[in-house]
């Protein structure tokens, strides 16, 4: 583990094998990495990056983890989407892009000649964890499961905690009392949204200050009581970025979580 946990955000990674487009906007793309070796055919992993939905963070910081997963035999697609701070980002385009991208990626990857074993797995970090859990709840698409890493899984609570200085309000245009209909459509913890039909593994560090683990605990408790199949893995002495760093001990828990879904 490096001394600066955030170093993974700028760590170089090998370039992707291909970039596919799921729409006409410059950000409606995904980088694809081909599985290494000739081992068993594994499911496509769609990586949804975090960064509190803000334009200053993009898919490039997930390069190290995507390269590691490809080395382990997974086909990987790093999804990009429009984000807040852009003229056309935020509500509803950020969520619309993620839904459209995930819907299209199995076909787009197959068109590259890449074999994938059945439905995809979604792997999302932080705000990307929110988007992955949200997609699993609102979509009828077939998923093998979700691995949510330190997810912003409860938008109403994240708004009350003012995570990243108003990030949720920037995404949805206000708080739960101002735009309740948007929270009902976008918040995975809102009772108006169905529970995910697929299995979800949530992995969260106890030392996380960017997204406190109480958010995952609250989400897992409420959704499990509603019938969702959720496993919450709490990691001591792990902060927000260790779960996306292949050089960290926490990464072994992530790869183990993936294996439970196939």
TrEMBL record:
Superkingdom of the source species: Bacteria
InterPro entries, sorted: AB_hydrolase_fold, BD-FAE-like_dom, GDXG_lipolytic_enzyme
GO terms for MF: hydrolase activity
Region called Disordered, residue ranges: 1-27
Keywords noted in UniProt: Hydrolase
Residue intervals of the BD-FAE-like domain: 31-221
PANTHER family hit by this protein: AB HYDROLASE SUPERFAMILY PROTEIN C4A8.06C
Protein name as annotated: Lipase
Species classification: Bacteria, Bacillati, Actinomycetota, Actinomycetes, Micromonosporales
């Amino acid at each position: 583990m490096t001394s600066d946990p955030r170093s993974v955000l700028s760590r170089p990674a090998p370039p992707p094998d291909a970039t596919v487009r799921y729409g006409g906007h410059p950000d409606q793309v995904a980088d694809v990495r081909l599985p290494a070796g000739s081992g068993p055919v594994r499911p496509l992993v769609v990586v949804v990056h975090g960064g509190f939905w803000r334009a200053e963070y993009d898919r490039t910081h997930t390069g190290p983890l995507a390269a590691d997963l490809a080395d382990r035999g997974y086909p990987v697609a790093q999804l990009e989407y429009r984000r807040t701070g852009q003229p056309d980002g935020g509500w509803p385009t950020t969520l619309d892009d993620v839904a459209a991208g995930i819907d299209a990626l199995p076909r787009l990857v197959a068109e590259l000649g890449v074999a994938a074993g059945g439905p995809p797995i979604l792997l999302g970090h932080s705000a990307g964890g929110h988007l992955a859990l949200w997609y699993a709840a609102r979509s009828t698409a077939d998923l093998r499961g979700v691995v949510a890493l330190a997810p912003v899984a409860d938008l109403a609570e994240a708004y009350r905690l003012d995570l990243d200085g108003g990030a949720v309000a920037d995404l949805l245009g206000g708080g739960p009392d101002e735009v309740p209909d948007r929270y009902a459509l976008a918040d995975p913890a809102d009772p108006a949204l169905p529970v995910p039909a697929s299995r979800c593994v949530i992995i969260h560090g106890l030392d996380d200050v960017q997204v406190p683990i109480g958010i995952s605990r609250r989400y897992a408790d409420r959704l499990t009581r509603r019938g969702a199949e959720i496993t919450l893995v709490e990691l001591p002495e792990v902060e927000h970025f260790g779960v996306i760093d292949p050089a960290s001990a926490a990464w072994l828990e992530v790869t183990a979580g993936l294996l439970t879904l196939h």
